[in-house]
Predict the 3D structure of the following.
Amino acid sequence: MATYKPVKTKSRRHQAVHGRSLRPQNEPPPPYYTIAVPPTGPCPTYEEIPYGGGAPPMQPYYIPQPVLVTPAPHVAQPSASPPQRKSGLSCNRNARCFGGSGSIVILLAIIAIAIWLGVRYGSSLLMDSSNGQIGTRGDSCPTSTVYCDGRKDCTLGSDETGCVRFLDNSTLQIKTNKMKDFLPVCAEGWSQSLSDKTCRQLSFKGSSSTGELNGWTSNGLSVTSLPSNYIQGQVDSSASCPGKKIVSLKCIDCGNRQAASRIVGGTEAKAGSWPWQVSLHFNGFPTCGGSLVSPDFVVTAAHCFPSSSPNFQNPSYWRVYTGLVSQLKLPPPSFVQKIILHEAYDETSHNNDIALLRLKTSVSFTANVQPVCLPTVNQVFTKNTVCWITGFGTLLEGAAQGSTNLMEASVSIIDFSTCNRPTIYNGMLTQSMMCAGNLNGGVDSCQGDSGGPLVCQVQDQWFLAGVTSWGVGCARRNKPGVYSNVTQLLPWVYAHMELEKP
């Protein structure tokens, strides 16, 4: 969690809030360094991102490293360059261009393989654009698969995921095989047992609260007596809802915190301030952050588990610490049952940089351990909205150690188009990303904050708006933090919570 503030001296300078570094403003930030780690476990190295010309090379800083909380020697690493958006076919000295009949043969072979994969795996190839269904690798589906009909066709049941969602005011919406769109559920005939069933389908322990919303005058879904293991198999379309009432449903009491904080960057957080914050330790060292969203699941960043070393994707190397505000006072850890990475995560562009951790045993909620709310499918965090970032990352760009204490800072949402301007990130942001910070610099996430939460308050609840993903430097001018957009990635989150539910 890096924070710089301008101070008045004989020459303008930047300094950290903790006074650990002082440098002239017109000098470039110091080069970034890796963190020395004990030889007992592997350490991910900086990935080399192809440089495509244009702006000078820049170095992403949200590259996972076990961040020490005690002084360690610096080990210099070469800088990387910004991601290059790829389009079309390019040929260079490292690539061979194919032409003529040879290219036709290769193309036909690729098409044949793609067709076979589509027939063999069906929804396993990520998302079916025709129906918006989330698929998952490793699940085999017959060609006759029907989505959201209340009957499992695919081996793992991915055909029945993504059929339930929530809008503002906790409006419950369900999609059935008969209806192409999601519809609200009529309140008449709805029961507490159906609420619990719906929430358990989404991997929650049961429902938190059920209510009714008035004034619905369009089509809805009525409850039927048909038996089904899925809630979408127990509803059917209805021309109208009796009394114009529809169901509102909360599956978990979330987004509540005890302690209040001042709106200043880089301050230490109090116990209970951010009870969903978790610290992810790899091989005994704090490496990334995450957010507790249920007793069994943590949302974090996919890049915390690089493919460069298989150990980083081995759950036995990881520990999850909840309810802590100091790395020197660790509670008993939670163990990881499974690491679930977004199938379309791109290690070069960091597109779809999100992951789920399924815990071996459910976390018990306390005053200092609480889940954050997942956003609703239509929830937008508009520009200039003041939100918060938290983490145990380094306090200065290039620092050799992370923060012992949980740090907090307020940041503002930056408009997507603004962040993609040539002078800022030059089109490097995708729709699964969002920006937050200050274009003048000053407050930002930094190394070790990866995977941690960007949360925004709506009324009395806190929602997980973003997941700390990448950026250039720490708290630099025109280089704000980039976060995975949880609203955009919400269907994936819910689908995989369903598939991996205890």
In short: The first helix runs from residue 100 to 121. DSSP finds four helices and 28 strands in the chain. The CA atoms of residues 124 and 137 lie 4 Å apart.
